[in-house]
Design goal:
single chain; alpha+beta; 5-stranded antiparallel sheet; 9 strands; disordered N terminus
Length: 211
């Protein structure tokens, strides 16, 4: 994680609202200090129609105002954390193409250290939903633009952001092994989000799937 304010700092739960607001303000300040919005859009694969930047987030239309860094959507309510995350994506993107090489969370920078947090905050709840109601999970995934794939026993491909695919995969288990689940990434993802922000976007996906 970059400590200079570049990047997305996952809020400490004890100071959740304050930390979230501070992260959003920092990302807004960095965004507004940008001198070349055309370059940002080229790097992140989004559309610039001044004064607005247009993109999609899990299939929802998003508009970013370059005059005040406001992040809004006509399709859904965005949390402050999601607003900060979208700005972080725009700021970090470096135009690296999707590499079509799948990796697990453990293979991300410092991913092995974050793995217990990732499991508890993201995977545990998704596995519970898969175990309890696969039909509901499938409907929720499709409503977020997920496309069924043939990986594992149940899997979906999401276009989380323009250059950020995510694969949600589940195995049903058997008499010896319990059900399992995971989120898989393209190897290029670290060019667009820090590892903490990757945890965050997966957590946001989990929340939307369980709503």
């Amino acid at each position: 994680m970059i400590n200079s304010g570049e990047g997305f700092r996952l809020p400490d739960q004890r100071n959740f609202e304050l930390a979230t607001q501070r992260t959003l303000e920092l990302n807004r300040s960095r965004f507004l200090a940008t001198q070349d919005f055309n370059k940002i859009c080229q790097n992140s694969g989004v559309v610039f129609q001044p004064p607005f930047i247009h993109l999609e987030y899990f299939g929802f239309k998003i508009k970013v105002d370059t005059r005040n860094a406001a992040v809004t959507s006509p399709d859904t309510d965005l949390s402050l954390r999601e607003e900060a995350l979208i700005l972080h994506y725009l700021l970090k993107a470096d135009r690296t193409p999707v590499l079509h090489e799948q990796i697990s969370f453990k293979e991300l920078p410092e991913g092995a250290n974050y793995q217990p947090v990732f499991y508890n905050r993201v995977l545990k709840g998704l596995i519970a939903l898969y175990t309890a109601d696969r039909a509901k999970l499938s409907l929720s995934a499709l409503s977020l633009g997920g496309e069924k794939t043939d990986q594992a026993d149940m899997s979906f491909l999401f276009q989380a952001l323009p250059r950020l695919p995510l694969w949600l995969v589940f195995w049903q288990g058997d008499d010896e092994f319990p059900p399992e689940g995971n989120i898989i990434f393209d190897r290029s993802i670290s060019h667009y989000l820090d590892t903490e922000a990757i945890t965050e976007i997966c957590q946001n996906l989990g929340k939307r799937l369980t709503q």
